[in-house]
Fold this protein.
Amino acid sequence: MRGSVKLATIYGIPVLLHWSFGLIFVWLAYVGISQGMDTIGILWFFFFAILLFICVVIHEFGHALTARKFGVGTKDIILSPIGGLARLKRLPEKPIHEFLIAIAGPAANVVIALLLFPVIYFSGAMSFIITDTAEVLFTKPANLIPLLFYTNITLVIFNMIPAFPMDGGRVLRSLLAMGIDRYQATRIAVVIGQILGLTFLLGGIFMGELILALIGIFVFFMATAELQSARTESMLGNRRVAHIMRERFTRVKKDQKVGELAAWFMTGMEDSFLVFHEDGYRFAGILNAKKIEESLRSGENNKLIADLMTEKIAFLTPKQSLKDAFYTLLEEDFDILPVLSGREIIGVVDRRALNSALQSKTSSQEQVA
């Protein structure tokens, strides 16, 4: 998500704050004023929102750290007005792993609620029963912990709604996938999510609840996006790297200048390259299309490829699925990958070839339909 600011890196995972997050305080101020809160009450309202989003961050780390145990990395965690999002680099392979990753977020909120319960129970100043009206609710610090307790319970209930992108949708999909194909499981979960989304939308319209209606729209379209993602994964998983591997490719050397690639790049013949050492045989890294474009656009034609290349190395084999290739390109932010047979590079797979494979597969399915 563009326009995000890094708050911190925790356990190796960047925590980002989207620029729109500030809108929530505008909305809270509006709600506070409309409820008759004074300035102190609104400030406490803001403080409670910050505490709540700390709980949301803990919820997302529940997902991220559990995913790490199953070999699934997390690109980052983003906070926005609609909540938090742990962006996993790939979906877990096994349904049981997806189940555990999905359930770990709500489980974190359950743990927070269990920790808050004795604090409220044994405190003489706090109570589970809150009788204060809205205009004075947040002016009493003793109300914050009980409110946080109830809000964490609400987060558990809300997140377990069986609809994407909520955790309940992923839990439902994982349970279904234990008995049927993952794509079919996704289709069933998506239909249920779309029905719930439309229900929220219509309910919000008839009851005059704008937030509920917006949640309904969000759920409906996110469910649709999840189906598209599952369709892509299903199509790629049935094909191999050998099917789209390009055997003829340009071997670029580290000591060449980027201007020497202009002819290939500008004509669209090749837009990303494998880089080799000066001897032309030892593999050195990847040169992404974006780096070339930026250099040519800024007139830095004499810049050495060694200064633009990425030395991080990953390989594919001809028998690997295209799904593996897709996720490797996505995780490592590569545009091209070498294909190995033994210790010899026999070809390449790039983003363009993957996109063409997806488009041709989609077109053939539409013709059959």
Residues 1-160 form one domain. The two ends are 35 Å apart (CA to CA). The CA atoms of residues 291 and 299 lie 12 Å apart. Strands lie at 4-10, 13-18, 74-80, 83-88, 251-253, 273-276, 283-287, 336-341, 344-350.
